[in-house]
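REQUEST
  id: r-88c1
  op: predict_structure
  target: TetR/AcrR family transcriptional regulator
  payload:
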Amino acid sequence: MTENASLDTRTRLLNAAADLIAATPGEDFSLRAVCDAAGVKMPTLYHFFGSKQGLTEAVVEHGFDMYLSAKSASESSGDPIQDLRMGWDAHVAFGLENPGFYTLMYGKVRPGYSPEAQSRPSEILRSLTSRAEAEGRLVVDHEQAAAHILATNIGVTLRLIIQGRDDPELSAGVREGVLAAITGTAQTDDDGERLGHSIIERAAAHPDILGAAETALLIEWIGRLGEG
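RESPONSE
  id: r-88c1
  status: 200
  body:
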């Protein structure tokens, strides 16, 4: 078996397993069914993965590889809060496009256990909330902000997968609610600091209104005023 053919066979098995998981969420899946769907014999599956647990872990790892590949292809806006907004939407889109992988990545839980591969996108999320904290954009610490976003993002995505359809209004509503909570703009604008936060986040959410350069300048100026 050539290297390319070997990689293709392995990928077919991973995709077959993910499709079976998506078709019967929350239920066990048959290795025989995976082999039949991929068009290979059982010894081939054991050659690549060793066991059912090995296959399951490989599906999770492959799912995160796909997810991170999609994220790396997107460009940063230059604003950490806007990047969090874009990351949220990319997360939901990946889940809806790849429900089999996603339900294994985030839907299968064991108390006290987190797949090692799950730490990679979490680090990206924490780097964005850390930047936002350094810019004075958060009213909670960056670890707590990341936890808020991850928990709600996963919850919304799993809900949409269960529904079997997208719901942009639901996703956007929860997204903006959690961003408002971590940036302080969910509170009543009863003082200058909160008003400044509100203006900054409004501008960051809609950079097309003023233009990218002008939006960045406005955010910098308001930040300086807040330091005064």
